[in-house]
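call fold(seq) -> tokens
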Amino acid sequence: MNTLFSYDWIGLFIVGIGTLFLIGEILVKARGIFAVIGIVAIILYFQHYLTDPLVLATMLIIYFVGICFILIDGKIINDGTLGTVGLVGMILSVAITAPNLTAGLYAIIGLVLGTVGAFMLLKIKLLPKRNVWDKMALKDRLTTEIGYTSLNQEYNLLVNKEGITLTDLRPVGTVMIEGKEYSGVSNGHWIPKDSKVIVKEVDGVKILVDKIDD
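ret:
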């Protein structure tokens, strides 16, 4: 008698649903419901195909660490490196677990669709956004009331001053302005190393720069 797992395409749905709800739980306030559904779906997928407890634990760890890498990159580091490593790890974990190539491809498609779907939850705003990641990231709440007066004044004086990028800005990197190094951010676009830039805006310690055309 055939079960759902005898069909190669079932991985697309189970991995897709698991990924959607797990990442969705971290991005929006779902009161733990998304987490329960996601964990059950992912464990069901890995547990059905893997009989060795050590291999099962290893694949689960790789998968969940991959999710953490993607979210940390997207909210804190923002250069794509850690996110790429996390996504590759997740893809490898579901693909290696699959019983054959076709099932592996279906699982990978499900993972990608689930990840995209989770971030779409932020766009459609069905549930309130979870702000825990905003609290972890430095949101430049360095105001005069908590003793950062001199630091704010120094950064505010940088507006309209020119500098040069010491690293690529993708969009975050290091810039040198008047002989001092600062962490700079471009307006959502890539600025290569050794480019001339001008400070357009300062918000706390976030320095927004724009490339000066030759």
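The longest helix spans residues 53-77.
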